[in-house]
Design a protein that fits this description.
The protein is mostly helical. Helices cover 95% and strands 0% of the residues. The chain contains two helices and no strands. The protein starts with a helix and ends with a helix.
């Protein structure tokens, strides 16, 4: 093998190595940028979920306060009515009516609260669920 052939082969080898290195660097840079964008999207999803949760807790707190106020007012009215009873029979009838109405109201409020909490849980989880779907798609595409 003469010196020119060896030089040409060496130059071809290093030229190919340089091209492969450039390609690897470009691919790594692109992958890093994609990972960075994905991470940023995850943080944004968590922030959005937190905002929804804060608003939800505010709404639930207001609902609880409204129910407590209504319940207190109802109890006060019932006690005034009970105090005006003229016989033990009337007193026990009024008490029974109040207890039944209070129980029905509590069951209805509990049902509304449960439905609201389930709906809110879904809304809170939605931004994160969307990110999981994106991650799953990326994994499927990469595989």
């Amino acid at each position: 093998m003469d010196i020119n052939t060896a030089a040409e082969k060496t130059q071809a080898f290093f030229s190919g190595f340089t091209d492969r290195s450039k390609g690897a660097v470009e691919k790594s840079t692109q992958m890093f940028e994609e990972m960075n964008a994905f991470g940023k999207g995850n943080v944004e999803a968590i922030v959005e979920s937190s905002k929804i949760a804060a608003k939800a807790f505010e709404t639930v707190g207001q609902d609880v306060a409204d129910y407590a106020k209504t319940s207190f007012e109802s109890s006060a009215a019932a006690f005034r009515t009970l105090a005006s009873a003229t016989s033990p029979t009337e007193f026990f009838k009024l008490q029974s009516d109040y207890a039944r109405a209070a129980f029905d109201t509590m069951i209805a409020q509990s049902s509304r609260s449960t439905e609201k909490m389930l709906k809110l849980a879904g809304e809170i989880a939605q931004p994160i669920s969307n990110r999981v779907a994106i991650a799953t798609d990326k994994v499927k595409t990469a595989a």
